[in-house]
Amino acid sequence: MEIIITIVFLFLIGIPLTVLLHETGHGLGAISASTSNAHICLGKWNEKRKPSFQSGKLRFYLRWSYVGFCKWERTNKRQHMTALLGGPLASLLAAGLFLVLAQLISSGGIHTILTGLLYMNVSIFLMTIIPITYPSWLSHYGSRESDGLQLLRLLIKRDASD
Fold first, then answer.
1. 27 in Cβ contact with 40 (< 8 Å)
2. What is the DSSP string of 8-72?
3. pLDDT for res 107
4. What domain range includes position 93?
């Protein structure tokens, strides 16, 4: 029974939490490198939606969901790269935190949950840092470019706006 509760918890709480951490990383990257506000959305983006809450320049639009987005205002090339890197970096740091916690708590359901969160954050890190265009069947992310592909395009783009 414990494994069923763990799996349900990971699907209902773990995935949205992992997505939210990743998108918050983008937001922190955006506001740390610029004067931009960051809009962190868990769930489908809707321009008419009011923020659930805000903290400084971070505005959170939260609904239970497996998808998320972060939008920021106009940035130059360096600032855009910092914002893009923030998501995968947050996922990698979260994975490291869950690894340490899972090793400190070495048995029971909490260990299994922490290990699941570790794998989820490693997965989102890899799925976003690898430079690809997501396949069209991948729901809200279909045909969008990964953070890694956007970063690669910015790196090879030559212009005077950096």
1. yes
2. HHIIIIIHHHHHHHHHHHHHHHHHHHSS--EEEEESS--TTPPPSEEETTEEEEE-S-S-EEEEE
3. 83
4. 2-36+75-156
Of 6, 160, 41, 27, which Cα lies nearest the Cα of 87? 27
Is residue 161 assigned to a domain? no
Is residue 85 one of the residues assigned to a domain? yes
**Contact at 8 Å (CB) between 155 and 77?**
no
Q: How confident is the model at residue 157 (pLDDT cuts 50, 70, 90)?
A: confident
What is the total count of domains within the chain?
1
141 near 134, Cβ under 8 Å? yes
Return the half-sphere exposure (C-beta side, CA atoms, 13 A cut-off) of residue 155. 10
pTM above 0.85, yes or no: yes
Residue 117 lies inside a defined structural domain of this protein = yes
Distance CA 120, CA 18 (A): 7
